[in-house]
Amino acid sequence: MAPASPAPPAPPPAPSPPPAAPARRLLPLVLPALVVGVVCALILLGVSLLAERLQDVLWETLPDALGVGRYSSLWMVAMLTATGLAVGLALRAVPGRGGPDPATTGLVDAPMRPGVVPGLLLVTVLALAGGVSLGPENPITAANVALAFWLGRRFAPGAPGELWVALAAAGTIGALFGTPIAAALILSETLASQPGPGAFWDRLFAPLAAGAAGALTMSLIAEPSFDLSLPAYSGPHWGDLLAALLIASAGALLGLLAVYAFPVAHRVFAALRHPVLALTAGGLVLGLLGALGGHLTLFKGLDEVKVLAEDPDGWSAAEFAGMAVVKAAALTVAATCGFRGGRIFPAVFAGVALGFCAHALVDAVPPSLAVSCAVLGILLAVTRQGWVSLFTAAVLVSDASVLPLLCAATLPAWLLVTGRPQMQLDGDGKPLR
Q: Which chain regions cross the lipid bilayer (predicted)?
């Protein structure tokens, strides 16, 4: 039998098309990024305005009509307890129960179902208006991410889902802080650890556009400001360096106390086995803490820190320390009993109060330095994000001369918090590391 003839050689593979130029890939993302950023800012603005109107009714109109002191201990306990009950009943009624357990969520998570968003926004408004010590950042970001992901996959199915998550997160964070720099810093820590095509700034291009759109929209409408208008810092001195290291470390230790109490408090409220009961009990505890620390320790804390900054000498060191500890405890209780909300803004209040405590103890420590270093330390412990902690601490005083000392103060504070548990639990109720 004749041997079989050899098979003809396979044709060479067709050459792959050259990759598109980076500019041609990035330009089509500008319009959707701008739209997402604007919509995220409008949703944040709408929720904030609605919460403010309801807050005026609950804390001014209603107690005045009843002849009760607006911020009397009785009214704080009654209102926070009623807020817990209302949020618990609302979570029972709304689709999706307001999303996952808030103790297990971070600032930017995987998108939830869009049907959960209305209920999540409802309970967020109730908590913000009722005086709960949580900010709007986590639930608003989750809502915007869910909507952007759902609409983006519906109208642009060819785009990767991660794009819509990044755009919504950047737009919301830019609107929250009034600047896209905050969004860029937060996302840079995530993008730097994720492999992906293109240069780092190529991947940051569209989120930065969304963050800029969100920040500009919020700034043009609401003009947000984090500047506490503290006395200008005169410049670094050797004594200031020691003070910065100690105050930032003290802030980190206060934050770590809250972090280690976090899973314990969560187990206590989970043992009640009913969300309505847990939230009502949590509201009662928050009311008692408010009665102990004063009405400035209620709410998310952004407006309240400005009250402290208007009169840094209006309270004693012990009173400032009490407010810092009470606010850290209120943050822990609110985030573990079931209220939906973020942890950055109440942590900022605790840091500001601690900074003023340091200034009251040692008058030679400039208040701008003390406040920025204390905020830096507690945010490092609570968020475990170095860039956003540095950024927030710096914008509170709007003084570039404190930056070298803040960078130095980051070192001992980071050594204290790195490798420690985070203020977030996994699905089994164990702290993330």
A: 26-51, 71-94, 163-188, 200-221, 241-264, 276-298, 318-337, 344-362, 368-383, 390-415
The single-letter DSSP state of residue 428 is T
- If you write DSSP's letter for every residue of 43-71 in order, what string do you get? HHHHHHHHHHHHHHIIIIIHHHHHT--TT
Tell me if residue 275 falls in helix, strand or coil.
helix
Is 397 within 8 Å of 228 (Cβ atoms)?
yes
How is residue 427 written in tokens?
A: 């699905």
Cβ atoms 139, 374 nearer than 8 A: no
CA neighbours closer than 13 Å in the CB half-sphere of residue 127: 37
Taking only the tens of pLDDT, the chain with its 433 residues reads 445 555 455 455 545 544 555 677 778 888 999 999 999 999 999 999 999 999 999 999 999 999 888 899 999 999 999 999 999 999 999 998 888 899 998 888 889 999 999 999 999 999 999 999 999 999 999 999 999 999 998 888 888 888 899 999 999 999 998 888 878 777 777 665 555 555 667 778 888 899 999 999 988 888 777 778 888 887 778 888 999 999 999 999 999 999 999 999 999 999 998 999 999 999 999 999 999 999 999 999 888 999 999 888 889 999 999 999 999 999 999 999 999 999 999 999 999 999 999 999 998 899 999 999 999 999 999 999 888 899 889 888 877 788 899 999 999 999 999 999 999 988 777 888 7
Q: SS3 of 307, please? A: helix
pTM of the model: 0.90
Q: What are phi and psi of 428, to 5 degrees?
A: -95, 5
H helix count then E strand count, the chain: 17, 0
Distance (Å, whole) CA 137 – CA 172: 8
Alpha carbons 209 and 220: distance in angstroms, whole number: 16
Of 239, 247, 229, 184, residue with least CA distance to 378: 247
Residue 310 to residue 347: CA distance in whole angstroms:
19
Quick one: the chain helix, strand, coil %, rounded to 5?
70, 0, 25
Per the CB < 8 A criterion, the answer to whether 96 and 115 are in contact is: yes
